[in-house]
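INTERNAL TRANSFER SHEET
From: sequence group
To: structure group
Subject: FtsX-like permease family protein

Please process the attached sequence and return the structure record in the designated field. Keep the field labels unchanged so the import script can parse them.
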Amino acid sequence: MGLLNKSYYIIAYYIVVATFTCLAFSSLIDSYEQTAVLPDGLSPGSMRVTVSMSEEDKESSMKTGRLIKKLTTQSNDPFLLYKDISSYGKAFFLQDHSLPLSTANGHQPKQGHSVVVLDHEMAHNIRKKDGEKYFRFNNRDYEVIDFFTPKDVGMELARKFFITLDPTTNVTGMYEVDGLSMDSVDHALKSLQKEEPSLKFEVTPLRLTVSERLEHVIQDQLVVVASLLVTIVFIMMSTIGTTTAWIDARRDEIYARYLVGARFRDVRRWLLKEYLFVVFGSFAVGAMCAFLLLAVGAFDKVVTSFDGRGLVTALAFCLLIGTSTLVVATWIDQRKKGIIRKGSS
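Return from structure group:
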């Protein structure tokens, strides 16, 4: 009870620090994990292909069907080909491959049919004809075979519809390929380039490097990162003072221990044990506060999940701060107030 009575201020201090760090680290770790999730059901081995023409030849007569033929003849492996057709939709071609979307009824497109899979929110755009449902895009009707709920990956705008790829469209554009090796895609594009030398292409993996993922996290969690940096500065400025005040409140106990023959390292070990006990208890309360704040949606615009790894990281952060500040604070107290007897160690 005596420890509790002399530790109210530092307990309140660490509860606030623990609450914020649990929320902050959970949000950062969740955001980092999200950067590994590729859009539209693509697997980690997917790649982005950009096909364009040189400046002097801005229009190509080559059609998308030629690219599809080159890819299918280059490899017998099943693959998926997406092509960007608008900021809200993509066209797809499937070669013995399923469309990797979480659809309501699990229906898959049939080869040779002009079909579309729609976001549930696009249901109001459906037209009925001869008892069937259709979606119109670029003056062409596509039969609606199923609906899906888009997954927010945080890095790309969620697509609202996926239609069958028209092989008669111009070959230039941006594609995603899933299921083929980069060498196979590269060979197919080089073969295409031999037929039309003015064709240019670029193939890049969709999976981000660690540095790129961290860059996305900083951009996505700018408020959290800025708040965390400000908090760290605040902790550096105030924690030692707070800990020194806690030590001052225990001065009688410290002197009593010296009177019975304790040395400085014995006193510091005792202080550290009691200080970490306070930190652990405060952290437990702070973690519960963070969980309750998240449960009531207090920070739902910034923090969306309570991650166990964020909890462990926040605990390690608080223990590191607690241990280092107590060691520094006892050394400062020794120099300023001479709580250690001369010659003790």
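Handover comment: The chain is about 50% helix and 15% strand. The CA atoms of residues 262 and 344 lie 9 Å apart.
Transfer complete.
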